[in-house]
Amino acid sequence: DQQVKQNSPSLSVQEGRISILNCDYTNSMFDYFLWYKKYPAEGPTFLISISSIKDKNEDGRFTVFLNKSAKHLSLHIVPSQPGDSAVYFCAASEGTYKYIFGTGTRLKVLA
Amino acid sequence: KAGVTQTPRYLIKTRGQQVTLSCSPISGHRSVSWYQQTPGQGLQFLFEYFSETQRNKGNFPGRFSGRQFSNSRSEMNVSTLELGDSALYLCASSWSATKGETQYFGPGTRLLVL
Fold first, then answer.
1. Residue A71 CB neighbour total at 10 angstroms
2. Which of B21, B54, B99 to mutate to test the interface with A (most CBs of A within 10 A)?
């Protein structure tokens, strides 16, 4: 049972445009969400997070939106750059020292 | 400050063998988590250790085990390897793995079971 789902395995976006990566979850007890970026042959690196008490968090070009009623979060990257090409994972936690990850979305930013 | 290191980086084993993977966390970090990454399954949580105690575990068979030493280094062991155990095994460290705390991942150990 996949509690965190990323239904788009891949996404291609033109450089300079907005990239929107989506993530859905089923467990209403999740109260903390994170996005990680992963390049080939490297471990995931932390990108941005959001607590369930917020509906938006921004960090430079990256913004995460949380819609608790829809159990949906999204990551917006504006403007997209070729260096953003990577696999993006969303993850959720209910505070039990355990993060549940989605299956990842491969983003390709075209120059 | 040195990052999370994992050894070995690559490993080839045959079915039925056992394997031990090692993870050295960032200096000062006391929590180590292990994940298995396979195509189409994303990162699946194996277990988490803090101060030599396993605090949480995922839904993996008992063939998967781990431990943490007093210096916070951690090992995971997989016994009686199966073809389906072929995956990238990632470890991540943090100060205490509490909510809101960033986990730092190592580069992973890629295991191939033949």
1. 18
2. B99
Whether A97 sits inside 8 A of B50 (CB atoms) is yes
Phi first, then psi: what are they for A90, rounded to 5°?
A: -100, 155
Are A104 and A7 contacting, i.e. CB atoms less than 8 angstroms apart? Answer: no
Please write the tens of the pLDDT for every residue from A31-58. Answer: 999 999 999 888 999 999 999 999 999 9
- Which residues, in sequence order, are CB contacts of B105 under 8 Å at separation 6+? A36, A43, A44, A45, B4, B90, B91, B92
Residue that the structure tokens 């260096």 belong to: A83
Q: How far is CA B33 from CA B18, B24, B30, in A?
A: 20, 11, 10
Tally: H helices and E strands in chain B: 0, 11
The answer to whether the CB atoms of A44 and B43 lie below 8 A apart is yes
pLDDT tens-digit readout, B85-103 = 999 999 999 988 777 788 8
